[in-house]
Design a protein that fits this description.
Vanadium-containing Chloroperoxidase, domain 1, mainly alpha
């Protein structure tokens, strides 16, 4: 019930005007692509550590997407616009299920990796992530608990990549 009420509230705020609808759609579908210029900037102009952070961000992204899609197939949670009669979908109907949010998982995995190597890039990533989160709820494709699941999975994905990286780089003792 709590999930449904938040989805309805957020969507009502955004669909109150055409500009709000446009913003919700942009946040939900386009905002995630703002990570690419940040990653490209760090790759082109960053230090060796920052360039390595871009690689870890991309590995975290891949692991997060894989994990999210796998969990989604197991959980099979219906999206809000299908489960709640009053919720409209403002984007083309996704063919996957709702939990966890793959967009949120991706955004958090990228943000965590960026923050680890460059605090400013990480803060930019956090702003992008907040926009994605609000947009995904506003267009009626995710519940807040889907978002929380995406946050947890995104952080776990980065942690696993980071730990895996440390294990690979650890010197072997005879």
């Amino acid at each position: 019930m709590f999930d449904s009420e938040i989805v309805l509230l957020v969507q009502q705020i955004f669909i109150a005007s055409e500009i709000g609808e446009w913003m919700a759609i942009a946040l939900a579908r386009v905002w995630i692509f703002l990570f690419f210029p940040v990653l490209a900037w760090l790759w082109a102009y960053g230090s060796t550590i920052e360039r390595h952070g871009v690689k870890e961000a991309l590995w975290s992204l891949g692991l997060g997407i894989f994990g999210s899609e796998f969990i989604s197939m197991l959980v099979m949670r219906e999206r809000p616009f299908l489960a709640i009669q009053e919720v409209l979908t403002l984007v083309p109907v996704p063919i996957t299920t709702s939990f966890p949010s793959t967009h949120t998982t991706s955004a958090i995995a990228l943000t965590a990796a960026l923050y680890f190597v460059n605090k400013t890039a990480g803060r930019i990533g956090l702003l992008i992530t907040l926009g994605v989160i609000i947009g995904r709820i506003a267009v009626g494709v995710h519940y807040p608990t889907d978002i929380l699941g995406g946050i947890a999975l995104g952080l776990l994905s980065f942690a696993l990549v980071r730990l895996g990286h440390k294990a690979v780089r650890k010197p072997i003792k005879n």
